Amino acid sequence: MFEFRDIEILQDIVRAGGFRAAAQNFGLSQSAISSRVAALEKRLGVQLFDRSNRQVRLTASGLRFLEEAQRLLRARDRIWQEMTHAGELSGTVRIGVAETIVHTILTDTLNRLKDDYPMVRFELSVDTSVQLADALADDRLDVAILLRESVPQGAAAASLKPVRLGWYGPENMSLPDHPLSLAELARNAIVTFPKGTLPFREIESIFSAPDIAFPSLHGSASLSTVKHLVSGGFGIGVLPALMAESDVDADPIRRIPVLDEAHLTDLHFVVSYFPERNREIGEAVVNTARHFDQSDL
After folding, report:
1. Which residues contact 236 (CB under 8 A, 6 or more apart)?
2. For the domain bounded by 4-84, which CATH number is listed?
3. Domain spanning 165-262: which superfamily?
4. Is 91-162+268-292 CATH 3.40.190.10?
């Protein structure tokens, strides 16, 4: 077998450029370093260094050994940090978010959490609220930002600001000088949230009146795709205002004024977690998300 000290010596020989320099760094004689390397090579049954010239160079076997062994050093250092900083939040935190959150507060929230909890590694999932709720209930997620209607039984739910939805068309869309009615909107292809979501079901509902021709209604799990399609003239779309009206240069679209009959219900997102499992990180995500959830769009 081998010790962490052996790995550190090999690593230093390579970094320092030779046995002599490494020996000085470790406060040992060059012969002691050479003997330790030779003993390691004997135990491993491979030659770690090419000694055919004056340059110190790892063999292919030596390179592979050092690369794998350095992973052990990193794991050792991580374990040491986590165990000696027991009061600090550490490890992997699994966060799930609905895509609306990706386009609004996610980046700022994760950046702040990364700074506040440097020992934490974040694993991110983006999915529909229904799927996020299932994952949270099954302990496949630690925290989820999802629609309040989907919160699993027994989970905490801290509200964020309502997300306003709006109607949007391509930048060059010709609009009349009055807000559009449902009948006028229905003359266009409509693209929005995926089928089965609250916004999709509400759009289906408001166009269900018998005196209105039901529009060509398309759903997409990717709101970025919806915005891109609207910008490209595929049709008009329903999108979160904060997302649609930011970064307009990327996919230029314009807001469509509509009559009250076409106004859609705000989306209400919450930060959800099970307190008995994840109270500390759950409360941290709540506080951070609320800090950046300031837009009144």
Report:
1. 167, 168, 169, 173, 185, 188, 189, 190, 191, 230, 256
2. 1.10.10.10
3. Periplasmic binding protein-like II (3.40.190.10)
4. yes
Helix axes 4-16, 30-44, angle to 10 degrees: 120
Domain boundaries, the chain: 4-84, 91-162+268-292, 165-262
Place of tokens 């700022």: 108
From residue 142, give the alpha-carbon distance in Å to each of 79, 114, 165, 180, 274: 21, 16, 28, 43, 8
Task: Report pLDDT for 56.
Answer: 78
What is the predicted pLDDT for the residue at 82? 59
pLDDT value of position 101: 93
What is residue 297's predicted lDDT score, i.e. its pLDDT?
Answer: 43
State residue 86's pLDDT score. 46
What average pLDDT values come out for the chain (297 residues) when binned by 10 residues? 85 83 83 90 90 81 89 76 57 91 92 89 92 93 95 94 94 93 95 91 92 92 92 95 75 93 95 92 94 68
Half-sphere exposure in the Cβ direction for 179 (13 Å, CA): 11
Q: Do the two domains 91-162+268-292 and 165-262 of this chain adopt the same fold?
A: yes
